[in-house]
Amino acid sequence: MTGDRATISRAYSVVSRIYEEVFNMGKLEQADTLIATAYIDHNPIGLGGKSGIEGFKQTVVTRTTMRGTHKNSFMGVDPTNKQVTVSGFDIFRIADGVVAERWGTLDGLTLMQQMEVFIPMAWQYTLLGCARPRGA
């Protein structure tokens, strides 16, 4: 970002308030004052624009880390007795007090690497939970 110190400071303040007030303090109404009407979210799992902010207010996002020992067959891999740690996230849409939709992924590539399983490149995008880049 280019500009004078005051402009940069104001921009930083807006983003800081989104994280602190909206995310950390749960003041979802502040999103209406901090995000433009013509807002566009370029994140592939993003809200899709200002209209998505209302949906965001009905959304819960969790980040999980699971640890364990690979003691049983898993995804066709015989037990290795290796300690493994896998992280992931889930996004839940709540409607009428219950979960209506869920999106989520685990870092399957790292999990398989910890079990010392060779992963062909073609499978790595699937295990990462992302789309294959064009030309890959």
TrEMBL record:
This is Ester cyclase. InterPro entries: Cyclase_SnoaL-like (IPR009959), NTF2-like_dom_sf (IPR032710). GO terms for biological process: polyketide metabolic process. PANTHER family: ESTER CYCLASE (PTHR38436:SF1), POLYKETIDE CYCLASE SNOAL-LIKE DOMAIN (PTHR38436). It comes from Geodia barretti. Pfam families: SnoaL (PF07366). It comes from the Eukaryota.
